[in-house]
Amino acid sequence: MSAGLDGVTVDIMTRNRWTPSTTRVLDDVTLPLPAGTVTALVGESGCGKSMVASVLTGLLPPGSAPSGRLRVGDEAFTDGELVGADRRWRGLRGRRIGAVPQSASTSFTPVRSVGAQLDEVIGTLGGSRDAVELCRRVHLDPAALRLFPHELSGGMAQRAAIAAALAGDPDTIVADEPTSALDAELSADIWELLAEAASTGAAVLVITHDVETMRRGCDSVAVMRAGRIVDHRRLDEIAASDDAYVAGFFERVP
Ligand SMILES: Nc1ncnc2c1ncn2[C@@H]1O[C@H](COP(=O)(O)OP(=O)(O)OP(=O)(O)O)[C@@H](O)[C@H]1O
Ligand code: NI
Q1: Sequence-distant (≥ 6) Cβ neighbours of residue 5 within 8 angstroms
Q2: Which locations, inside or outside the cell, does it occupy (predicted)?
């Protein structure tokens, strides 16, 4: 099932001493996420990439005033419904939309084994696969289920976090910088894993700074600047852009 943002603008009300002011963090963002593909989202720090993830997961911060439309499969959320208070969000998160956090360490509590925590997620979401099957899907040795989060390597922890995101069999997957803590080889593995999830029909969005290994698993790249999508094309096309801001992200891509 495909997903996508359509003309989404988000203003956040902030209070500076006594003067309320509004910051536009997303400006008319249209980002289609077709089923079966991986879309990468790049852009300078603070340009709004994580806000796009917040829109997709219904987790915009308090004080957000959104407009526009989000589509997830056959569900559509318009304007105020985008803040995530809508009851439909509860059925969506985890089941239709899986989120992979930036740091795997934020997905797991240190006090219980990885297996116990995965079982809990599967139970809550009514997932059809058990923890061992999920491990196989993310190429994680099921022996890791007996371990505590601090006993996993960075790459293993990120695989376990992806396993948790896949537990409810979501058809849209949003990963915010899933490879930022990993070396190039492990990053490439994670991209391949996300591409594998897409090959089973999921729409995958990966927010990243990792242009060197993204070629291992991405179908198109969207570039953001100051809350707007300024370009969105295939990696080979966009890397050859004449625009200095856009091309700047791909300088080190051989
Ligand atoms: N809770 C919040 N309240 C008000 N403004 C916020 C809030 N969270 C983020 N912002 C603002 O929204 C803008 C976009 O932030 P966002 O986190 O989406 O950037 P980003 O592109 O993900 O950056 P990075 O690469 O550093 O993660 C920034 O200007 C930030 O200051
Ligand atoms: Ni971010």
Answers
A1: 29, 30, 31, 52, 55, 56, 68, 69, 70
A2: Cell membrane
